Amino acid sequence: CQVIPEKCVDCGECVEVCPVEALSSPKNTEEPAPITTPAKEVCMEQSTANQTNPAQEVAQLEGELGRYKGVWVFIEQREGHIAPVSLELLGAGRQLADKLGVELAGVLLGYNLSGLEASLYEYGADKVYLVDHPVLCYYRTETYMQVVGKLVQEYLPEIVLMGATTTGRDLAGAVATELATGLTADCTVLDIDQAKRLLLATRPAFGGNIMATIVAKKHRPQMATVRPKVMKMGDPVPGRQGVLVKPEVSLQEENLLTRVLEIVQEYGEQANLQDAEIIVAGGRGLGDKESFHKICGSLAEAIGGKVGGTRAAVEAGWLEQKYQVGQTGVTVAPKLYFALGISGAIQHLVGIRGSDIIIAINSDPEAPIFQECTYGIVGDALKIVPNLIKPLQVLLK
Ligand code: FAD
């Protein structure tokens, strides 16, 4: 919206209520003008300044925006180990690039990474931009944002994808802000509107109750993040070759605002739920913390699984937030997922839909989890699980 200066009475009401702080008073007088027209509806009109007709849009795309070509995937690595989500995104990026008829490139930043690019070609990249520099040894928002931003401005990709990991979420937001472009976070589906060459980035919205497809019509690059395990990793093509580009960057440690003093590694059985092949997850239906750990822990231990839970279980203090599965937790894709005393709220289900087999135990036959699971058992999980342990151990041997 924009304020119609002739009709504005400078009441300031529109400025206060605008949710995106996009309005300001055009009069800017010290003394508020006397209110003569009460209706704020008549003092504002839909702005036409940014509206274009379809023909103009196409012309705009063919012009300024059309200079941007190619799909990029930011390759996340730690100590030379590529994050699986980056390989998953190369698969998704390959499909987007093929639909657009453009190159797929991986962007790899770090130190002493020579040779790491080979696997990126095998997973679908035509090109790899490798920036190997001591200052990039550990991830820092400041340095990575500067380098990725500079590469984008130099090589002009139309799409940039990143994993929705701790690093990827941080970097994507920083780069999008730096480049003043659009970013759609936590996408579950990526596609292309081929007529308009637009990225269609789909993600759950309004608490997971609707799927929203978001497009960035007027800015480039179009950026999106995707959580680990949401996209299936493609099969590598052994020996597939690509082009290595090594852009020069000038980075000085002494010019940076942050220093990495120490890296503290976290070890432990439970460390990474996302990579687990078997997950035993519990919900509020398990009653209390003691039963939760007795039931989930004993089953997980017996069959080599890891323990996860719902937000209700986390909020009750039964397990740490990092083991929460779902929309505001982790997305998982194990071979086997046990949902014990879990109702099956949509926010939980979006995090488990990549599982091969879901086994649910719930005392309520109407629980929504039974609409999603592969096998369902109606009954008391506290009584059923102890009787399942032995047969499952035999079965999974
Ligand atoms: P409940 O819904 O209370 O279900 C308990 C179930 O246990 C019931 O179905 C009951 O029939 C069954 N039960 C009871 N006793 C037994 C028994 N003895 N044996 C077997 N079954 C029994 N939730 C998540 O999990 N992950 C998220 O990431 C997440 N993000 C959210 C984000 C937003 C914005 C919002 C609004 C909510 C989010 N939630 C999330 C919360 C979600 O909506 C549900 O409230 C939550 O998943 C419910 O957890 P639950 O299934 O453990 O509990």
TrEMBL record:
Q: Name one Pfam family in it.
A: ETF
Please state every residue range assigned to the domain named 4Fe-4S ferredoxin-type.
1-28
Domain of life (superkingdom): Bacteria
Keywords assigned by UniProt? Flavoprotein, Iron, Iron-sulfur, Metal-binding
Molecular function per GO: electron transfer activity; flavin adenine dinucleotide binding; iron-sulfur cluster binding; metal ion binding
Query: Would the keyword Phosphoprotein be found if you checked this record's keyword annotation?
Result: no
- Gene Ontology biological process terms, A to Z: fatty acid beta-oxidation using acyl-CoA dehydrogenase
PANTHER family named in the record: ELECTRON TRANSFER FLAVOPROTEIN ALPHA (PTHR43153), ELECTRON TRANSFER FLAVOPROTEIN SUBUNIT ALPHA, MITOCHONDRIAL (PTHR43153:SF1)
The identity of this protein, by name, is Electron transfer flavoprotein beta-subunit
UniProt source species: Desulforamulus reducens (strain ATCC BAA-1160 / DSM 100696 / MI-1)
